[in-house]
Structure formats: C-alpha cells, structure tokens
Amino acid sequence: MDDLLRIDDGLSEEQRLIRDTVKKCVTDRVLPHVGDWFEEAVFPARELAPVLGSLGVLGMHLEGYGCAGLDAVSYGVACRELEAGDSGLRSFVSVQGSLAMFPIWKYGSAEQKEEWLPRMAAGEAIGCFGLTEPDHGSDPANMRTNAKQDSSGDWILNGAKMWITNGSIADVAVVWAQTEDGIRGFVVPSDTPGFSAPEIHKKLSLRASVTSSLYFDNVRLPASAVLPGVRGLKGPLSCLSEARYGILWGVVGAARACLESAVDYSKTRVQFDRPIGGFQLTQEKLAWMYVGVGQSQLTALHLGRLKDAGALTPQQVSFGKLANVRAALDIARQARSILGGNGITLEYPVIRHMNNLESVLTYEGTEEIHVLTLGRALTGLDAFH
C-alpha cells in the first residue's frame, strides 16, 4: 500500500534500515505462524528471544552492556514493525527492554547491570516487571506487596502481582514493593525459593503472549537485590513512560496491518458484480482509516523527535498512548466490518489485532488514566482523588 503522506521519507538511512530489517524478520519468522500461536495460546519466547537479540531490538534504546544504544525514533520504528506482526511480539520486546532492562540500567547497581543486562540484550535471559496487583492496577501507590529487612540485612518479600507479561517464562523479575522507606524496586531471580508465576489462561486477547501472576511467599533476597538508584513511585512510573512510548509507535503497526488487509480485500471481494472497494461507503471507511494511521504516525514521529531531544514529558506520552491506541482500535473495527464474516477468522490478521488492541487500550495506563492525566495538565486540577 502506498504511503501517500511519505512520512517514512523523513527517516534517516539507518532508521529505514532498522525498519526493513525488523519487517523482514517479522515477515519471515512471525507472520507465517502467528495465527496458529494466537489460536493455540502459545508464544515461542525461548526460540524468538535470541533472534530478537541478534537484531539488537532488546533494550535497543539503552547504551552499553551489549545494548544497541540507538535513538528513540529508531526504537519506535522497530516497535511499529513488531506490532504489525502482533501486539504480543511487541509486548515481549517492550517488557524486556523498557520494563525489565530499563530500571536495572537506570537505577541498578554496577553488579546488577553486569549480571543481567548483557544476557537480556542477547535474549539469553528473559525479564518481567511486577507492578500491577490483583486489587491495585491504576493505583500503584497503595500496593500491598511489601518487603522488610530482617536482622541479617536480608529482605523478605511477600505479596502478589497480576497481568504480568513474560512472568512464567522469566529468568528475573523487577518487582516493586512497599518498604519502611517507601516503594522500592527489587531484582528477583525467578528461581528464588518462594517465588512462583502461574500462567493466566482462557484469554481472548494477547493470546500469542505469556501472561502470568506472580506470588512471593517469604522470598528471601540479599541486601544487594534492591535497586539503589530510586525510591518512591518515580521508579515504576518512569519505566511505564518508557513502555508507553513504545506502545504509541507499536499500535500504528497494528492499525496499518488492518488497513492493508482491508484495502487488499476490498479490491478482490466482488459483490453486485463489482469489487466492494469501488463502492462509496467502503472508500469512505478506507479513507478515514488511512487518515487515522497517518495522524497516529505523525504523532509518534513528533514525540520520538521530542524524546531524542530530551524534551518529552509524561503528559505528551499520555497524549500519544491515548490518541494512537484509540485510533488503532477504531481502525481495526472498521477493517473487520469491511471483511464481513471473513473478518472474524484467523485467515486474516484483523480480528487478532482487534482483540489484542482491547488489552493495549487498558494496559500501561487505562484510557481513563491518560484522560485524567491530560485533564490535570490542562486545568491544574487533580481529578484522581
């Protein structure tokens, strides 16, 4: 499908190379199988992680320790092409790089960085991020998971987390817990006694992704397990901002994939002796879908350039996540209507993207949270309490 706005013409040669390399990997290694993965509710993380590591997309926006150290727009372009394959694939990369590697890179000790980051960048070790709890999703300040130091100096971790991508396949979890000094982050190897991560089943969204609960039953951790560089909600919220940035790019890929499928279908599906793409109502749908993809891509590119300039704010990230996810979900639903009954089968990517986007709408901050974030920025008044 032609890029009428020629947005990618503004990418650098290196950024276009990253786009093409990631797209080829998704085309060759993911698209032939992802429908089956979705239907069977599996994600071959151990097989794909080294491939993604060799591409340099795991922690690609971080510097050192085997990470690519690339700019924010490059990372965004990679997320776009990954999610054009499946939201679960981009989620794996986002969680690995922005939620598990980033806090270790930003707030960890030298020993924690050396132990985990090179292996995670290579895809040899998988990470997860424990913040959301069964009773505290949008309100992490009131989390119940807690860690207490005993007389030996060890930390004793107790509590539970929920909706954790990569949880049951992770080698390490970055877990946030209440302490006497406020919320702290802990680097928790998954083989630590008392740690368990049962997988959540019967999902109808993000089926090609591993989603788990985490349980901590008197998990004993050495003093060196705590992330020394941050205290309070600033730590987990900064990680969420990193992940949300990848999402606002990624959903453009999902939306584009739905639009491309709808355009191709409309040119070959014949009704009343002509392709349905020749009907005015279909063309109106396609035109508005394309406008939505283009506007979302321009938003992502603008925010990426702000991030590269060191000027991106959490409020701007909320704008991008709110606007682009909603646009992508609307585009997926319109594409489904153009494909009619065929739109609900996994022969086409549309229903898979549409179902996935229902999860993307609410994870990393629900739509309502981002609305209130923007409302507070506009009025100076806090509507959260």
From TrEMBL:
Coiled-coil stretches: none
Enzyme Commission (EC) number: 1.3.8.6
GO biological process: fatty acid beta-oxidation using acyl-CoA dehydrogenase; fatty-acyl-CoA biosynthetic process
GO molecular function: fatty-acyl-CoA binding; flavin adenine dinucleotide binding; glutaryl-CoA dehydrogenase activity
UniProt entry tagged with the keyword Flavoprotein: yes
Domain Acyl-CoA dehydrogenase/oxidase N-terminal: 12-124
Cofactors: FAD
Keyword entries, A-Z: FAD, Flavoprotein, Oxidoreductase, Transit peptide
Transmembrane regions listed in the UniProt entry: none
Residues in Acyl-CoA oxidase/dehydrogenase middle domain copies: 128-219
Protein family per UniProt: Belongs to the acyl-CoA dehydrogenase family.
Protein name in the entry: Glutaryl-CoA dehydrogenase
